[in-house]
Structures are given as C-alpha cells and as structure tokens.
Amino acid sequence: MHIVMFAVLVLSTDEFDEGNRTQECEECVPELCPLPLGCRAGLVQDSCGCCSQCANLEGQTCDLGQRNVYYGLCGENLECKLDRSDGADLEEPEAQCVCLSQKTLCGSDGQTYMNICKYKEAAYSNPGLNVSDGPCRTVPIIKVPPHNLVNATGSSIAFLCEVFAFPMALVEWRKDGKEVILPGDDPHISSRGGPQKYELSSWLQIEEASQMDSGTYRCIARNELGHVSATAILGVLPSGKSYTLS
C-alpha cells in the first residue's frame, strides 16, 4: 500500500512571543494541499515542506534564511534582507524581500519596469509580455500632479509635480497662461526639485502669499519626444482661514 504524508502546521500561541515558536508537522498528503492562486512571485514550500504556497513579493516582510517559519519566503529573483534604511538603532530592523537585480527593463507593452521582479509580477497576468534593456523611451508622464489649494494671506504654499520620463524631462512652472517661467525675478516665489531614477520632483514654493498670488498654475514637463502639463488653482484668502479646495 502506497503511503503519502500530510503536513499540518500547529503553532503554540503560548510560545508565540519574540520568535519563540513551536511547530508540529504531521503526515503529508499532497492531494489535500490547497491550491495556491495569484502567486505573482512564484511558489515556495510551506514550513512543513509538504504544500506549496505563494512566495512573498518585493517589499514584503520575510523570514531570513531558507526556513519558512512565520512571514514566509521570498520568490524568484528575490532575497530576504534586513531593512536598515530607517536608521532606527534602538529597534530590530525588519527583514524584507529585495530584488537581486535593479536593472531597468522596457516591456513590450511600452511600460518601464524598475527591475526584473516588477516585470515578473506584470508578466504573471500578461504571459506574452517581453522585455529588453530599458528604460522605455517615452514622453513625460506626470505621476503626481499639483493639487488645488486654498490658504490664508501670509501663509507658505507649495505645489508638487512629479514626472517620469526618458530621456529626463525639463519641468517648468507658469501662471495664468502667461509665458513667464516661474519663479522669474519674484523674490517670494522659488522652485526646487531633484531627479531620481528617471523621475523628477519639482516644487513651486510661495512665501507670504497674498491675494495677488491667486490664479491657475501649470506644471509643464518636456523632453525631445514631447510635452505634457497639469494645472492647479490657488486661492489666497484673507488671513485666518485655511483649507484645501477639492
């Protein structure tokens, strides 16, 4: 008679503190294993080594090493590493799944994937998706447009415009359809920003705003392939009132 094994994971709630866990694996019957669905990072074995379960995606908490204890194991092209980016020396850093390659790829769908792990996630629901060395050449895309604002006279106001493009985009600010590029020579208006990987965050700062600053502000992003823009309305009210315009 052919004997198969079925694994059952039993966690003792009394011993579940500070990683002090006990487990007990019983007989394993693969035919009784639940079918894992929607596993965009592939499959890994459960803690008893019997059933398959979804692997963890990039950025998810994970178990260090090769043993699936509590949080789970990372999927293909991923590695579980301690996250020390927050600089918290007094707390134990959290382990997260990190993609082994950060090489940017261009998908056949025209989308830029920041690493192979993001591409694999997308390819799960689009099996015909192919990639080449990236990023994809594209006209600018405004990922975070400026928002409408209302604030009081004398307040400090800031508009944000986040742009993705390759080649890198140039971002300009203008007001009320005029051709003057802000901040111009106005000392109470300034702009700042910095590039990330194929992205640019641009801020337009207005100090000690007056009702003369009310109007429509436009963020314009352009590169050699084209340009795109987004607008936001600023209302400056008498001192003492402050709210966001929806």
Automatic annotation (TrEMBL):
- PANTHER family for this protein: INSULIN-LIKE GROWTH FACTOR BINDING PROTEIN-RELATED, KAZAL-TYPE SERINE PEPTIDASE INHIBITOR DOMAIN 3
Keyword hit for Signal: yes
Signal peptide residues are 1-19
Query: Which Gene3D superfamilies does the UniProt entry name for this protein?
Result: 3.30.60.30, 4.10.40.20, Immunoglobulins
**Domain Ig-like as annotated: residue spans:** 140-235
Question: Entry's InterPro entries?
Answer: Growth_fac_rcpt_cys_sf, Ig-like_dom, Ig-like_dom_sf, Ig-like_fold, Ig_I-set, Ig_sub, Ig_sub2, IGFBP-like
Compartments (UniProt record): Secreted
Keywords attached to this entry: Disulfide bond, Immunoglobulin domain, Secreted, Signal
What organism does the UniProt record list as the source?
Sinocyclocheilus anshuiensis
Gene Ontology terms: cellular component: extracellular space
Which Gene Ontology BP annotations are present? regulation of cell growth; regulation of signal transduction
Task: Quote the gene name from the UniProt entry.
Answer: kazald3
The main place the protein resides is secreted
Q: Under what name is this protein listed?
A: Kazal-type serine peptidase inhibitor domain 3
State any single GO MF term.
Answer: insulin-like growth factor binding
* Kazal-like domain ranges (all copies): 75-138
Domain annotation IGFBP N-terminal: ranges:
21-100
